Amino acid sequence: MTRALFIIDVQNDFTEGGALAVEGGSAVAAGVSALLMEHPDAYDVIFASRDWHDPDSDNGGHFAPAGEPAAADSWPVHGVAGTPGAEYHPSLLLPDTTIHIRKGQGAPGYSVFDGISEGGEKTGELLIANGVTDVDIVGLATDHCVRASGLDALEHGQRVRVLTDLVAGVAQDTSDAALAELAYAGALLVTSDVVD
Fold it and tell me: Per the database record, which ranges form the Isochorismatase-like domain (predicted)?
């Protein structure tokens, strides 16, 4: 068994004070760092994704037009490549071996599978190259990018666990629905105390 950790979008724009702040986002950042410090050998591969949207486009309709309210699939400007909002939260301490995935470059890009590494490889290709069979998922936001990443990992054939104490969502009802959907699709909902 080869286990990977997906750290989804623990960025300044998605934590308290950011453009699309998620309540509890900063606590998730600190909690993920504590997990990695306490269990440095738990994961064979670590992936960390970030929204990395183009600054000069609406990124495939992902950004709401200026002055207009966001719709169901459009959002205020966030995660713009090279801006402080797109950087990892300062409490998130990542190992040097982390594979960094940038997603949403000109497109919506919810799932970690929508992104590419700094070397241009797709997440699915990297999972295969590293022989990954099992994935744990943490990060932001439960009801959007965590959900999409988990469903795609299951479709890719991974055994998936969502560490429910290390995710936070935009809203409680949609986060609960996302977790229920992931469980129905085959993911295990567990807490980080299962990590060894």
Answer: 4-192
- CB-neighbour burial class of residue 123 (10 A; exposed 0-12, middle 13-18, buried 19+): buried
> CATH for 1-22+86-196, among 3.40.50.300, 3.40.50.850, 3.30.1240.10, 3.90.1150.10?
3.40.50.850
The catalytic position among 103, 114, 136, 152 is: 103
pTM: 0.94
Active-site residue identified among 114, 136, 143, 145? 145
Nearest-angstrom CA–CA distance, 13 and 11: 5
Is 173 an annotated catalytic residue?
no
State pLDDT tens for residues 65-102.
665 555 556 667 678 889 999 999 999 999 999 999 99
